Amino acid sequence: MLLTQLNQIGGASVSRRERAWLTAAVVGWIALNGAVLLLAPGDAPFDWPAQHDPPSGPSQVIAAQATLVELVLLAAIGYALTRGRPAPVIAERAPTLPTARRETGLVLAYGVLAQLGGLLIGRGLGWHPIGFHLAGTLVGATDPVGSAEALGWATYNVVVYALLPLLWFRRRYTAHQMCLRSADRRGDAILILAVLVLESLAQWVVLGHAFAGLAPGQLAAGVPLTFLLYFAGTVLPTVIFVQSILVPRYARLTGSTTATLVLGGLTYAALHVFEGWGRFGSPREATLTILFVLLIYTLPGAFKTWLTVRTGNAWVHAWAYHAFAPHTMHDTGLIVRIFRL
I need a labelling partner for 311 at 20 to 30 A (CA). Which of 82, 83, 273, 286 fits? Predict the structure, then answer.
């Protein structure tokens, strides 16, 4: 289990509280995989045209275990690179317990409203739901996505999940308290470079076909445009909403590294519930959509959280494990098609 390994790699003492959270995380992970296999023993009802094979429960469970192995290896390398620096106590950057509890509840409620708002606005404009990923991201989309939808998606997310929360909280807290300032720029840069190179290689092996067929001119225009759109639409929202605001408060409220990783991973996954490929036409489709979202995004969300907890810098995950790999590497073809570059 990723969380167990990350705690061991991070050198966290395994207290009774940590053991309880570790047990819950392992049981939850096993149950999640079992539920996916039970409800989707064959093909799942999702449209993933960019994938070689139709999505299925077994294939997704196998992919999730591969992700688990990869992230444990990345965490081991990350710990080796940071073992000589003091681990920040990000819980101390959050406010007192009553304030942290109140702010966390309000932020989560705001996030639910933001998700519903994205769903209603997207549908009202004849688009896909506005979620944390542009429709077609990573898995492709049969339904066409227009340039107006792509720009609207990025604008909505950067304003609602990044700009407004940042303006509100920066009036009350410093950049240090919000984990937006590096305490070791050189150390963070080395960690970012190592994770970015290794993750890029892994993405190239698995998803390298994404650049196939793109002309040099398309790459020259598509790569920076893809970076900018995804930086606004999903990277900055993750930095501010999850890593900067919620993660320190999770640490304060739980007093547990494992709990912080679990909650960070689950929050990141929950923000993807209205993916463009999701289906909610029946109870089975809705359940499978939620299960697949949890299976795909919880582990990456937990690893992003670990990078923040390990460095005290919410920006590390953005450069190491989000903005370039996978999005710029894999989704440039999608943006080239959308904008007809």
Answer: 273
Nearest to 339 by CA among 224, 249, 203, 204: 224
CA-to-CA distance for 236 and 159, rounded, in angstroms? 10
**Could you tell me which residues come within 8 angstroms of residue 195 by beta carbon, excluding any fewer than 6 positions away?**
74, 77, 78, 307, 320, 321
Dump the DSSP string for 288-338.
HHHHHHHHHHHHHHHHHHHHHHHHS-TTHHHHHHTIIIIIIHHHHHHHHHH
Tokens of 236: 């900055």
Taking the chain (341 residues) in runs of 10, the rounded mean pLDDT of each run is 53 74 96 97 88 86 95 96 93 97 99 98 97 92 92 98 98 97 96 96 75 87 96 98 99 96 98 95 95 98 98 98 90 94 92
Which residue, chain included where needed, has tokens 């989707």?
Answer: 40
